[in-house]
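hiii, so i know i said id send this last week but things got crazy w the move. better late than never?? heres the sequnce for the chain we talked about at the cafe, plus the structure i predicted for it. fair warning i was half asleep when i ran it
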Amino acid sequence: MTIQLNPLGSLDLLSQYEVLVLKAHANSDLFRIFRNCCLAVLNVGSVTDSAAEIYEQFQDFEVNLVARERGIRIELINPPENAFVDGQIIRGIHEHLFAVLRDILFTHSLLEAVPAHLAESPAKRRTHQVFDLLRNAHILRPGTDPSVIVCWGGHSINSTEYDYTKKVGYELGLRGLDICTGCGPGAMKGPMKGATIGHNKQRIRHGRYLGLTEPGIIASEPPNPIVNELVILPDIEKRLEAFMRVAHGIIIFPGGAGTAEELLYLLGILMSDSNAEQILPVILTGPRESEHYFIELEQFLVATLGPEVLNRVQIIVDDPVKVAQLMKQGCADLRHYRKSVGDAYYFNWTLDIPEGFQQPFHASHDTMAALQIRQSLPKAELAANLRRAFSGIVCGNVKEEGIRAIREHGPFLLTGDADCMASMDRLLEFFVQQGRMKLPGSHYEPCYRIVSA
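okay and structure toks below
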C-alpha cells in the first residue's frame, strides 16, 4: 500500500523555503528518527513494548516527503494496516504524523540556533529550547487559568489500577481540569479516557489531552487515540523538563522503572532550596489493592534521599474524589503564587532546574557503570544519578539501542553504597514480581545487575 497525506494541524501552511528545508533532511540520521516515529504513531495498539521488535516487524515500511506548490505531503509505503478504517487513515493518526514532522524535522533548526546571550548558559539554553518547542506546537496558551494536571504511571498496569486511573481522570474532568501524560497506554491513557466523560458531562468541548514523548520511547509507548495535542521532545531530559514547566499539578500512579525515574527527577528538583517556595501539588495515588506499592516506594525514597523527601508529596489511597479536589485547590493556590511572583501560568519560568537534571544521559555499559550512587553525595546529585540509573534500565527494557546493547554485551552493571544498592535492588525486584517492567504476560529478563561497591 502507498498513500499520500495532506498536512493537518500546525503544518497546514508552509512557505516554499520551509518545504525545501524539510526536504534537505531527507537523507540524514534525523530522517531515520522521523521514519521510526511515524511508524510508532501508525502502530498504535500494538501488543509489544519493544521498539526493536516493532522496527524489525516493519522493515519494509518507508516514508517520503513530497514537495508541491501548496506545501508538503507525507507519503507512506507499506504502513501498518491497523492505522486505517475501510482504506482511510484514522484522522487522529493523520494529525499525529504531521506533529512528528513538525517536531522531528521542522524544529531541528531551533536546537541549532543559540541566541548570543544564552550561549554561555547551558541551563537557560535548554529551557529556552523546551519553551520554543512547546510554543511552536501551540501548546502554550496565554490568558488561560492553570488547569493542566500531569499524570505519570506505568504502561504495564493491571485492570484494577487502570480502572482507578480512569476514575481519577473522570473526577479531574468534572472539575474542568485538563490531562497531560506521556501519551502511551496504561496509566497514560486511563486518566485521559476518564476525563473525556467528565468533560462531556460538563459540556467542555475543548478538553486538552496533551501527550509528551521522545523518539527513544515512542515506539514502545505509541500515542493513545485520545491525545489531541502531541509533542515529541528531542530527549528524555527535555521531555521531563517540559512536564515540569507546563504542570499545574502532578499525579503519580503505580508504575515501574520509568515512573521511578520521573519521580526522582521531580523530587530532586523540588528538594532544592532554590525551589522551596514553589507551589506544585504532587499526589501519589492508586487503588486499595496497590497500597503495598506505595509502601515499597516510600521505603526506597526515605532510605536513599532521607525522610524530608516526603515533605513534597502526598500519598492518597483509593480516593479519586479527594485527589481531584486537592488538584483543583492546588491550581488555585498555584495561580495565586504565580501572580504574586509575576510568573506565567502556562510555563513555569521561575522553577530552578539544575544542569545535572538537564544534561542528556546516554545509557551505555560505560556510563551506567560510571554512575556514582552514594549517600555521601548531596541529595540533589544522588537523586540525579538515581534518575539516570532508572533511565538506563528503561533504555535496556524498551529502547532499540538499549535492547541491542544488552543483547551484545549483557546486562548493565550498577554499583554504589551497600545500603543504596540494597534499597534499589529491593524496589526493582518488587517491580519485577508485580510485572511492572514489561507488558502483562511477557517474560522479563533483567537488563541490569546490581553490585555493592
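btw The chain is about 45% helix and 15% strand. thought thatd interest u
miss u guys!!
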